[in-house]
Amino acid sequence: MLLIADSGSTKTAWSLFDAKKPRAFRTHGLNPYFLDRENVVRILKEDLLSRKAAWQKVDRIYFYGAGCNSKGKNQIIRDGLRNAFPKAKIEVHSDLLGAARGLCGKDPGILAILGTGSNCCYYDGKNTFQENPSLGFILGDEGGGADLGKRFLRAVLYRQLPARLLNEFDRSFRLSKEHILDAVYKKEFPNRFLASFVPFLKLHQRNPVIRKILIESFGDFFKQHVMKYKKYSPAPLNFAGSVAFVFKDVLQEVAEENYQRAKSIVQDPLPGLLNYHSGDRR
Question: pLDDT tens, 137-181?
């Protein structure tokens, strides 16, 4: 039985082929930069294995995840999965390769992920190649949810938003400056906290100040990442991730202005991954 996962920092989408019919599950994100082996095991047991399914029949797992870009980090995920599925053959790959396989199959393309964080690569139909690394939400992640939230909260705390929007923010969240700073600098998963303001940005994306934040963040992503792959043009440009999908109209405008129109903007590459691994279904 086949189990496939597409994991970001905030959530993981799972698909289990049970009796030839895929079943979908959602759990917390499993990013090895923020979780150790013990926490991976805990999340798997509490969020996944607690659901009713024939987990004991799983014999093959493909895990594609944010932060899975080195042997050491991949081993954290692999060890956690091994604890939960001791008999399964396990492969752990980066979320970039998952997006590439899910959106492009075996055709070349430029892949970009905009979720809680961000990443970009060129895919030759088999392997991914990066010009610039993903640096995480403190040093990078331009265009991702954490970056958008950081820019937005800076505008809130500097009182750079229109009074009406500031009042609505205060009514919606009731967050003091101290609460915000504690969440960013002292509590766990500050990237998730920053990205949690994406729904508010979506609701007000036509406000000129919010629109400016979106355009500047996406523009920086193109400048630092997508434009580095111009030498591979006319390879099609593809986006995956919740932020890319939520703001696809604005993102498409920035894409056309800076590089080329995106061929596809999807929230979840998992359907394409199911098709890619169709030969491994049991």
Answer: 788 889 999 999 999 999 999 999 999 999 999 999 999 999 999
Does the predicted TM-score (pTM) go above 0.85?
no
Q: Contact, 144 vs 114, CB < 8 A?
A: yes
Tens digit of pLDDT for each residue in 101-111?
A: 999 988 999 99
Domain with residues 2-98+270-280, CATH architecture:
2-Layer Sandwich (3.30)
